[in-house]
Design a protein that fits this description.
Structural class: alpha+beta
Number of helices: 12
Strand order of the largest sheet: 2-1-11-10-7-8
Largest sheet: 6 strands, antiparallel
Number of strands: 17
Shape: globular
Helix content: 25-40%
Length: about 450
């Protein structure tokens, strides 16, 4: 992006070339564009790329002038190329980068944005049809007749949406791809009592209007793609990275070989799942919470949801349809553990029933929209020999730590966020003899 700017008392225009998807403007030296004036806020505005478009959000109390419109702090607008922004006493002209031939990743991001817009429109129409704006009757969420009526409404609404009219469109194929990918990433069947109980309480997550013949076709297509991606038939967590990395290139080759009726069925299946997740569950976080490979979920804003998987942080490719939905999901999460979050208490730390830790921030503290972090509780207890196998410590150090605990020496475990302090403390506590009394001065939900 090229930015031209000048002070109103100075006729000389200056130009700045900037890279990236986020450009900060303000008085402080850490900004990308530094405007030297006491009238300029330390952070006056921020430009953010969302797919192919750019948005400007006002951060400074004095506001800005965007063309003929005056914007106040907190407001945001989509902007076009060559737009003039007045941040007194500066005039700033933005020369946005021209649209070039998009890569497959960029094209997929564009389709993700279109998908979010369509889902938002369908969701709003469903709320009106079923009178859900006043709140959801939780006693109905696992009622099969209620679920059937809801899904039939979605079919009717989707049939009337102009962007879903053609079964041969890129958007339909993209929705179908998401449905197939979601099917391949589905978790293994519940094997313990707690998991089975959770599955029962989330009966709403099942699609009740499935067609058996199409489901067989879905299963066969999934098995074919698994062979293409060289995935074995087990429900191993090792298969997840292979699917995440290889699915979309493989789908690009396969999509045109799938008949249009099946693509339309998969697209509608995906729509039903996405909308039901928003109405009854945690929206786009539902699948991420179920993936055993994901250890942390970070919602930076409605368009960017990052995950930590196997020690690596990456963009999940998922997004919320609006800030309002993000905030409603946050309310749903913290409400289930007896906490509340609102403008008078915009920051909440909580713990879910499974021990996962949650941190949520909403306006006025969150200036770019609500943010949410969920650090998931590990499904399997990590033992000292696991740390040795992973190379976190040697067998000699493990034996030394065992001797330290058995001889009742003092141990200090320190480290930054997410470095494994509680994991190591759990391993050390395993060395304590069964007949000893243990007094904990810590939240015991994490100690196993």
């Amino acid at each position: 992006m090229r930015i031209w700017y000048n002070n109103v008392v100075d006729t000389q225009r200056r130009v700045l070339e900037v890279q990236g998807d986020r450009v900060r403007i303000g008085r402080d030296a850490h900004n990308d564009l530094v405007l030297h004036s006491p009238y300029i806020a330390p952070e006056a505005a921020v430009l953010t790329r969302r797919g192919p478009a750019w948005e400007i959000q006002v951060l400074g109390m004095n506001g800005i002038q965007l063309g003929d419109e005056q914007l106040s702090a907190g407001e945001q607008r989509e902007i076009s190329s060559n737009v003039v922004v007045e941040i007194f006493p500066y005039t700033v002209s933005l020369e946005l980068p021209r649209a070039e031939q998009m890569s497959q990743d960029a094209a997929r991001r564009l389709l993700d944005n279109q998908m979010a817009e369509v889902l938002g429109a369908l969701h709003r129409e469903l709320l009106d049809r079923m009178d859900l704006r006043r709140g959801l009757d939780v006693t109905q969420q696992n009622n099969q007749d209620y679920q059937l009526r809801l899904e039939r409404h979605l079919e009717s609404i989707a049939a009337q949406h102009p962007q879903l009219a053609s079964s041969d469109s890129d958007l339909i194929a993209h929705l179908a791809g998401h449905a197939l990918r979601d099917y391949m990433l589905r978790p293994a069947p519940a094997s313990n009592a707690n998991a089975q109980e959770e599955e029962t309480t989330q009966a709403w997550s099942r699609i009740v209007t499935t067609v058996p013949e199409r489901e067989k076709e879905l299963d066969a297509t999934s098995r074919y793609l698994a062979k293409v991606l060289q995935i074995d038939g087990s429900e191993s967590a090792e298969n997840i990275p292979k699917i995440e990395e290889g699915f979309w290139p493989a789908w690009q080759e396969l999509r045109n070989k799938i008949h249009i009726e099946f693509r339309g069925y998969l697209a509608l299946r995906r729509i039903k799942k996405e909308i039901k997740d928003m109405v009854f569950g945690y929206g786009p976080l539902e699948d991420l919470l179920r993936l055993s490979s994901v250890s942390e979920i970070m919602v930076v804003d409605r368009s960017h949801i990052y995950v930590e998987s196997q020690g690596t942080i990456k963009n999940s490719g998922r997004q919320f349809i609006s800030d309002e939905i993000v905030e409603s999901i946050i309310q749903r999460i913290v409400g289930k553990v007896g906490r509340r979050i609102d403008k008078s208490q915009p920051l909440v730390d909580a713990r879910l029933s499974d021990g996962s830790r949650v941190n949520a921030v909403i306006a006025p503290l969150a200036v770019s929209g609500p943010t949410l972090t969920i650090r998931k509780f590990p499904e399997r207890k990590i033992l000292i020999h696991d740390l040795v196998a992973l190379g976190a410590l040697s067998s000699d150090v493990a034996e030394f730590l065992r001797a330290v605990v058995l001889s009742r020496r003092n141990v200090v475990v320190s480290g930054g966020t997410g470095t494994g302090k509680t994991t190591l403390l759990n391993c050390l506590s395993d060395f304590i003899p069964a007949g000893e009394r243990i007094v904990t001065i810590e939240d015991t939900a994490e100690l196993q």
